[in-house]
Design goal:
Elements lengths: L2 E7 L6 H17 L3 E9 L4 E8 L2 H14 L1 H8 L5 E6 L2
Antiparallel strand pairs: 1-3, 1-4, 2-3
Length: 94
């Protein structure tokens, strides 16, 4: 079943652009990953929030992606740029 993922990130002070650039730079790899149907980055500077919105063919494809991404070191880079724990939500598409 198709899975929608929404991740909300709050950048550390003065790291908004760095985080936005990092996330934008990895989008092509995310979109090319097997099982990814859609991946976008949205931002709202006035709220100091960045949202990742992804659609995956199923939860297994998303789990495989998370394992791969963790090994790539991107999560560590993101952790250096955020002020709060990220909010990660998963929804099944009707």
């Amino acid at each position: 079943m198709t899975e929608a993922i929404i991740v909300t990130l709050v950048p550390s002070e003065e790291c908004f652009d760095d985080l936005l650039n990092l996330l934008s730079s990895v989008l092509p790899e995310t979109r090319a990953f097997e099982g990814c149907k859609m991946a976008e980055v949205y931002h709202n500077r006035s709220l100091n929030e960045i949202a990742l919105v992804q659609m995956w063919q199923d939860s297994e494809a998303h789990d495989d992606y998370l394992d791969w991404r963790a090994q790539s070191g991107v999560f560590d880079k993101v952790a250096e740029l955020i002020a709060e724990e990220q909010i990660h939500r998963s929804f099944q598409v009707v």
